[in-house]
């Protein structure tokens, strides 16, 4: 060969898409292709395939395998003369290494691609049954199956059939194969065949008439006894036949396997019997089946065995399928199932996962099935098991917007085509997009992408998954807006009844009110209504994810009404990624946060992720500076305290919103895993806010009554949960007041001034207003309610020296200055140090007294009718148990263990563990119980808008507490069980450490 010719051929091969022209040139010059090496038709046809190198190599292998020169010549002549065969054969050789291997083993099977008649274009079950008719054993069945598969693949790669038709043909071939396998099994066991009537029900993609090239074929078996046979014997025979059928299809032979037959969708899954009678199936679905099992039955279709029995199975179960949407938590169950699928994908594969990943095939299928189950009860046109047919029916009925349906249809077809071509290459079950460039290039070319196949493939794949991600959940909600909005003439819309059905399925208790809210928000032609129509489909989904969707939507309408004319509100929700989802979570999580927001709706700005706010708590110094500045601008004490209370309300909302978002999680960030961190953040934020509010109120009162200088130095000491930085949303401010007359000031004058300050602070902080009141509780002062409200430092010293009781020492463990004269607060702390950390600890009499007080409190203070095991404060293993145990450690060992000298429960518990006063396991048990009980109290306040120490009894409120604590819909019972279990373990530790010899 001359160099010039070689160069010319080399260039032509490159131009036709060969990646290894040198190897291709050698094959073309080889003996197998000598008669046709210069035929331009062959090169053109090879260049049109997905992988010209693979196609040429496969053609040479097929020619080498021909049985003699005559067969060799017949193949070459037909290949050149008959374009249909040429396109089909080379198309398959260039797309599937596995089918090339089959042809090399069975070199005459290429004849299956020669016929090109109308009936050959779209074969059905009957044609495939004829193609498998000669198979009498598993090996011959595999050969016949591959021959039929060869013709399906040929039509697919040549574009004769589209992806939906290909999937239907694959399902029809599977049907014919199951029938042939059952016939083989029955022929091998005629006694078993005579003893029973056995029907095979296809499920999943086979049942839905949309099978992949390589997929498990999901089935369910149902059997009845033949005349004269007992049920037990019939079921035994049917089970043997079913098991043999599964082996015939699944087992690996010299010709490989066909596909696994999977019967795990049957009642009780792999733990249940393989075969049941119809009555047994019906009893299970009526009593025990979960929501996902009815979803699976959408695709049930009798395909093999006793046709009458198979149809009876479908007829009996169909009514139950269409009642599934009436089940409690139906939508939540389906969505949770979808989330669980995503969560189980290995992190290394999720970005390549074509089927199960975000924006993948399963998202389309789940969305369509959800809508079918909701609306198929009343509209029989929606009851197709085929995804694309069902999507088309949903669009025709107005259940899905036509444009959305068209975009999803296009995306689904592209993704299924990718899946088909990926599997066709090796005939292996996979849904992962390949990473190797040569695989991406072949895949892209097989889909018609020829300029830069690998790059174009990834771009198109990402585009389509992006469409699915944006649409698949909105699909459920957008038509609700169309039902109340002005649509283009001729556009189908949800009927009022269909809209009501959908809202009820989403968990709305009052669908009529919800539709009124949607109409008020989204109807009209204003820009505001247009933005709302964009936002609401997503917001409705987030509301539906809460325990009270009705409240979420109502609150959103109220906020929108209040802020509708402000230019930034809807722009914030539309443009700042986090703001809309954060708002939806906050508005539907309970009463407290929405109530705080309604009093000043502009606080919505805090929910954004830009520079305008954010949900991170502000430090005490920052808060105090802002409040004192507001007080300084006020004309009198009342205005000053109003300013302080306004800041407090805004910051309480910020804290509550951050807590809710952290507890629920968002689409971009999961819920906070460290429950203790959430508790600590709330406790610190609310305690800092309370301290800053008291500091501002004190400044306002002093300035209004005395100018710059009060006649007495004055300090506020935080006690209880306030001093411990552990305040909840509904906590009072436990404090004691201490003062010390200024030099030369009469003690009576100083005392009168101090008492007046306290009285005025309490009055101003409780004045009726839009802001929540702050209650000051001074009952932990010496002598309790009977003692003076304010004392001098000397008076405290005298009292503690002469009269102090052990419970007062215990109370002082939490004392910490929070406002007022810093030096006076420091000296008060020094004064009480010997009382709260007594040298050499407590004597046994004092320990016994503490235990006696604790026992009396448990018996006397628990509210009548309350379940002790669910009382977060006084119940066994609750807050009181853990705190008294920790405080006993502090009283006994604080003098020698510096780490115990803290006002904070969790810090003191950790220090006790470090000091070896309890084991790490015991400390963890106590900490877990304390954190959980605190979280429950916070949840109750967030949900009900008022403080409480027990779980709510109203189901929606209880469910909302569960959502805050991380439990899905319908799992309130699991939450209560977990609480009892956690506190029971803690009580066991308390009984050892507090009442026993520990500590």
Q: If you had to describe this structure to a student in words, what would you say it looks like?
A:
This protein has 999 residues and is mainly α. It is 61% helix and 5% strand. It contains 45 helices and 10 strands. Strands 1, 2, 3, 4 and 5 form a 5-stranded mixed beta sheet that branches. Strands 6, 7, 8, 9 and 10 form a 5-stranded mixed beta sheet that branches. Helix 18 (330-343) packs antiparallel against helix 19 (361-375) and helix 27 packs across helix 30 (577-588). It starts with a helix and ends with a helix. The relative contact order is 0.04.
Question: What keyword list fits this structure?
Answer:
mainly alpha; five-stranded mixed β-sheet; disordered N terminus; single chain; elongated
Distance between the termini: 98 Å
Q: Based on DSSP secondary structure assignment, what is the total number of beta strands?
A: 10
Number of helices: 45
Biggest β-sheet description: 5 strands, mixed
Helix content: 55-70%
Class based on secondary structure composition and strand pairing: mainly alpha
Overall average pLDDT: 91
- Beta-strand percent range: 5-15%
What is the 3D shape?
Answer: elongated
Low-pLDDT sequence parts: 1-5
Q: What would you report as the Rg, rounded to the nearest angstrom?
A: 38 Å
